[in-house]
Amino acid sequence: MRLIWTLVAFLLAVGIAAHCLDELNGRPLETLIPSPALATAAGVSLAGAAAIGLWGVSSIGIYVVPFVLIGVALVLAYNLELFGGALHTDHVFALGWGAFPVLVGGFAQTGSIELPVVLGAAFATATSLAQRSLSNWARRLRRGGLRVEGFVERAGEEREVLAVDVLTAPAELSLRALAAAHVLLAVALVALRLNWT
Q1: What are the start-end ranges of the H helices in the chain?
Q2: What is the three-class DSSP state of 89?
Q3: 56 and 8 in contact (C-beta within 8 Å)?
Q4: Which of 49, 149, 151, 158 could join 12 in a cystine, given CB atoms 3.0 to 4.6 angstroms apart?
Q5: Does 181 share its domain with 195?
Q6: 126 and 178 fall within a common domain
Q7: Long-range contacts formed by 185-194: CB under 8 A, 24+ apart
Q8: Same domain membership, residue 151 and residue 79
Q9: Whether residue 127 sits in one domain with residue 44
Q10: pLDDT tens, 21-77?
Q11: Helix or strand or coil: residue 114?
C-alpha cells in the first residue's frame, strides 16, 4: 500500500503541481488554461502530496518529514524559478527529478536508504542529465531555429541537406526511447516489489 501512496504523491507533486507551476511561470506549453486555475491545481496537488507524506509518518517514522519539506521546496523553487532561477539548472533537475524520487520511493518502502536505492538514484541522475541535454538541444532548435544552412556529405551517399527537423530527429528519438526505458524499468521494479511471477 505504501507503494501506491508514494506513486499518488509523486503524481500530485510532479505530474500535476510542478507542471502547473511551470506553465504559470512563462507559459512554455502555451496553454490557454487561466492562471487562477493553474495556481489552484498546483496548490491543491502539492498540498495533497505533502499530506500523503506527512500521513506516512505514522507508518514510516518521523524521518519522512525532511523528504516532504525538501520535495515541496524543490517543486516551488525549481518551477517558479525562485532565488533568481539559481535552482533552475540541469543539475538540480537531475537531482530533484531523478535522484530524489528514487531516494524517497526507496525510503517510503523500507524506512531506510539502502545501497540499491542509492545506485538507482545515481542511475536516475545520469539519465536525467542525458534527457535534459537532448531536450535542451531539440527545444532550442524547434523554438528558436529560424534557419539552418549546410549539408552532410558522406562517401558514396547523396548529400543530406540540414534542416531543423533533421537536426532534432535523433534527439527526439532518443528522448522517446529514454521515456519508454524508464517506464519499463518502473514496471519491472513494481513487479519485483509486488513479487509478480
Answers
A1: 2-10, 19-24, 35-55, 57-60, 65-79, 90-94, 100-110, 115-144, 164-193
A2: coil
A3: no
A4: 49
A5: yes
A6: yes
A7: 190/3, 193/3, 193/109, 194/3
A8: no
A9: no
A10: 999 998 888 899 999 999 999 999 999 999 999 999 999 999 999 999 999 999 999
A11: coil
pLDDT (0 to 100) of residue 147:
81
The dihedral built from the CA positions of residue 155, 158, 162 and 167, taken in this order, carries a sign that is negative
Q: Tens digits of per-residue pLDDT, 75-113?
A: 999 999 999 999 999 999 999 999 999 999 999 999 999
pLDDT score recorded for residue 7: 92
State how far Cα 17 lies from the chain centre.
12
Q: Which three cell numbers stand for residue 101?
A: 524520487
C-alpha cell at position 4: 501506491
Per the structure, the complete domain to which residue 11 belongs is given by 1-88
Q: Tell me which residue has cell 534557419.
A: 147
Give CA–CA dist 24/119, Å, rounded.
34
Sign of the CA dihedral with 153 first, then 159, 160, and 162 last:
positive
* Same domain as 80, residue 94: no
Distance CA 68, CA 10 (A): 11
pLDDT at 141 (0 to 100): 86
Grid cell 513494481 in the structure block, residue: 190
Which helix (H) or strand (E) element contains residue 13?
A: none
Strand partners, 151: 161
Question: Distance from CA of residue 192 to its chain's centroid?
Answer: 23
